[in-house]
Design a protein that fits this description.
With 482 residues, this protein is α+β, with helices and mostly antiparallel strands. The strands form five sheets. The chain has an eight-stranded mixed beta sheet. Strands 7-2-1-11-18-17 form a six-stranded mixed beta sheet. Strands 21-20-23-22-24-25 form a six-stranded mixed beta sheet, with helices on one face. Helix 1 packs parallel to helix 4, helix 1 packs parallel to helix 7 and helix 7 runs antiparallel to helix 8. 32% of the residues lie in helices and 27% in strands. It contains twelve helices and 25 strands. Strand 13 and strand 14 form a beta hairpin.
């Protein structure tokens, strides 16, 4: 049987998209050119918004317990603490915590969830060509197999084959020279309740605690000029600069489990859709790792796209609904690119003016509690709203397009539940039975009815936890799904 959606890329974005589509009853097929799952990863922080998405996919189970609760960042100059930022719940009513955990573990849990839903990635399956028409896409794989699908989504990273085959531009600029990345055990007295970072004339260095007594070391090192260094060379370089840049308080590198090297680029796809081919995650936007926004933004793309594709495939909405995917998600990617670029340039500042602004201006400012709350709020992405997009609206808060918190609710039989727990591939009508019946007539079986524990206006909530509308949904649904 040919799938409704072919997904290229079995990373966190492709797996999230596959799970979300299967929750909506859409058939999928996931391919990846790699021979098997990744065991290492650059991403190692999941902010609250990402945890919420995983929770709505029913893929959060066990991850908070495995994660490290390292919710502070302490910046040093030598052995002198300069700044301490505290992260955590920004007070926006989420039951899903931020987590320090490797992308590889997140992917493992998503693969488990995909298996529960009846799917699995097909490893060693490279995409080599595509041809699309008004009815679908024909994809040819590296072994000669042909797959016919209604829609193709590229979740295959910054070097996306799907993006290249679709002819979508990916303009951008180089933001920095080389960073070294090493996962290792350390002989250190550093506090594992938070991340430590050091500003240094030769480049910043950071140490983040990871599960299993591991540390992730990240160092900006433009002086490291090996064209294609081995992992051993990267580890030896890190072993030498760790005590130098931390004035000894970083300790000694004992044994490394992984090492890599990368430069930072800022890129944004010209469009997220070319006919029946769409992009999500790093295939659509690439930016610096500072702030932990990459995986977070990518799985948010997946959740936003899934319910829209499901409605189109199910014949409940016109293809115009898919244009709202780019309209809602690309502006966010633009903001993320700007923020991560600014953070990168501040962290790698080497000139006297840049160092003065960072060390004498930015550091004191970010020690202020109000700025710390702002940093937590911003990086969490719980603030994301689509009120200014084509599905948004005006009026009193919450406005159409705003995120709805994880409210305490009751099912019709009186049992207690949480709003986000009921959103797993479904819409939720909160409060008004008439609203529920109207939504069900337009959206079919993927609508549930809840009563709020607190007094709230009757609202219809999208599967991605954003407000669709208040009161009678017919006008909004007719406009959105036309």
């Amino acid at each position: 049987m040919e799938p409704d959606v072919l997904i290229a890329g079995a990373g966190p974005v492709g797996l999230s998209l596959a799970c979300a589509l299967l929750q909506h009853g859409v058939s999928v097929r996931v391919i990846d050119r790699a021979p098997g799952p990744a065991t290492t990863s650059r991403a190692n922080f999941v902010h609250a918004r990402g945890s919420e998405v995983l929770d709505r996919l029913d893929a959060l189970t066990g991850l908070p317990e495995e994660s490290v609760r390292a919710m502070t960042i302490t910046t040093y100059a030598g052995d002198r603490p300069m700044m301490r930022i505290r992260f955590g719940d920004p007070g926006l009513h989420t039951a899903a915590p931020p987590m320090v955990i490797s992308q590889a573990r997140v992917e493992t849990r998503l693969r488990d969830r995909l298996a529960e839903l009846g799917g699995r990635p097909e490893w060693g399956s490279a995409l080599v060509s595509v041809d699309q028409n008004a009815d679908g896409v024909t994809a040819v794989l590296g072994d000669g197999r042909t797959v016919r699908t209604r829609w193709l989504v590229g979740c295959d990273g910054t070097g996306s084959t799907v993006r290249k085959l679709a002819g979508i531009g990916f303009p951008g600029v180089k933001v920095s020279e080389r960073f070294l990345l090493v996962d290792a055990t350390l002989d250190t007295t550093l506090d594992r309740s938070g991340t430590s970072g050091w500003v240094h004339p030769e480049g910043m260095l950071g140490a983040m605690p990871m599960p299993g007594d591991q540390w992730r070391l990240l160092a900006y090192d433009p002086a490291f000029r090996h064209d294609k260094p081995t992992e051993e060379q990267i580890v030896e370089r890190m072993r030498r600069i760790l005590p130098e840049r931390t004035s000894g308080i970083g300790g000694r590198l004992l044994e490394a489990s992984w090492a890599s090297l990368f430069s930072v680029h800022r890129r944004l796809a010209d469009t997220y859709r070319q006919g029946r081919i769409l992009l999500a995650g790093d295939a659509a936007h690439a930016h610096a790792p500072f702030g932990g926004q990459g995986m977070l933004t990518g799985i948010g793309d997946a959740e936003n796209l899934a319910w829209k594709l499901a409605l189109v495939i199910g014949g409940l909405a016109g293809e115009r609904l898919l244009d709202t995917y780019e309209a809602e998600r690309r502006p966010l990617a633009t903001q993320v690119l700007r923020g991560s670029t600014a953070a990168t340039r501040m962290n790698i500042a080497s000139g006297p003016v840049g160092r003065f602004l960072r060390d004498r201006v930015m550091v004191p400012v970010f020690n202020l509690p109000v700025l710390q709350r702002w940093a937590t709020y911003t990086t969490s992405q719980l603030w994301v709203s689509y009120r200014r997009g084509p599905l948004g609206g005006r009026g009193g808060r919450p406005r159409p397009g705003d995120r709805i918190p994880d409210l305490a609710c009751e099912r019709p039989d009186g049992t207690r539940t949480r709003l986000h727990a009921e959103l797993r591939g479904r819409w939720v009508a909160v409060g008004d039975r008439d609203l529920f019946e109207a939504a069900r007539r337009r959206l079919g079986e993927h609508v549930v009815h809840l009563r709020p524990v607190e007094v709230l206006p009757a609202v219809l909530v999208r599967p991605d936890a954003h407000l669709a509308c208040k009161g009678d949904p017919i006008g909004w649904l007719d406009g959105a799904l036309a």
